[in-house]
Design brief:
CATH architecture of the largest domain: 2-Layer Sandwich
Order of helices and strands: EHEEHHEEHEEHHE
Distance between the termini: 16 Å
CATH topology of the largest domain: Alpha-Beta Plaits
Largest sheet: 8 strands, antiparallel, barrel
Strand order of the largest sheet: 1-3-2-8-5-7-6-4
Strand content: 35-45%
Structural class: alpha+beta
Shape: globular
CATH class of the largest domain: Alpha Beta
Number of strands: 8
Number of helices: 6
Length: 203
């Protein structure tokens, strides 16, 4: 399975319009595509440094399914046309889905984007599978976890999806987050900085 991740940076006041477009236009169109697996739209409601932002993750059976769909340049052009007040150009990357565990039904996400030290992709996948996901599934309110890998650029995205913000905060208070981040200092090129994003679309 692969994932296409688009970062949409919006001018202030454009977030509601963007989410309505994703839910009402993009999602129905995606569901008609062969090989489409699912979508997550994760919204940052108060990113004061760069305006409002949405991370749109679409999941596909494989690269050929993505290539045959309208989810690439055509979809990006539609977003640009419908949302003229973008604060920055769309940024899109394709990742391998190294791990996908759990079920739908989340309201918030812990989102981590990390540059890896060269040669550590397999180590990250092993830690995520054997340590991080095992610990996550023991946390109250944990719903789903994704690990996305860009091998060519030594980059990883981790998405942990939670039933409620209180569940996510509780996992931090009991030390879960600190313990998991402690697994990675030797394999990341810079300190890991988790973000809490709102699950705006899940389908």
């Amino acid at each position: 399975m692969i994932a296409r991740v688009r970062t949409i940076r919006l001018a202030p006041g454009s977030l509601v319009q963007a989410l309505e477009m994703l839910h009402d236009d993009e999602l129905p169109a995606l569901r008609l595509e062969q090989g489409f697996v699912g979508v997550l739209a994760l919204a940052s409601l108060s990113d004061s440094a760069a305006g409002e932002r949405v991370e749109v993750i679409t999941l596909w059976d494989d690269q050929s399914a993505l290539d045959a769909s309208g989810a690439g340049a055509v979809s990006d052009a539609r977003i640009i046309q419908r949302l003229p007040r973008l604060a920055a150009p769309l940024d899109a990357r394709v990742y391998e889905v190294a791990q996908s565990v759990g079920i739908a039904g989340a309201t918030v996400a812990r989102y981590i984007s990390a540059q890896l030290r060269p040669g550590n992709v397999e180590t990250v996948i092993t830690i995520f599978e054997n340590v991080v996901m095992h610990a996550a599934t023991e946390q109250t309110g944990f719903r789903r976890g994704l690990l996305l890998i860009d091998r060519a650029n030594d980059h990883a995205v981790s998405v942990g999806l939670w039933l409620s913000e209180q569940d996510l905060l509780t996992s931090e208070q009991v030390g879960y987050l600190r313990q998991q981040i402690g697994q990675f200092p030797a394999v990341v090129a810079a300190p890991v900085v988790p973000e809490t994003l709102v699950v705006a679309v899940e389908g």
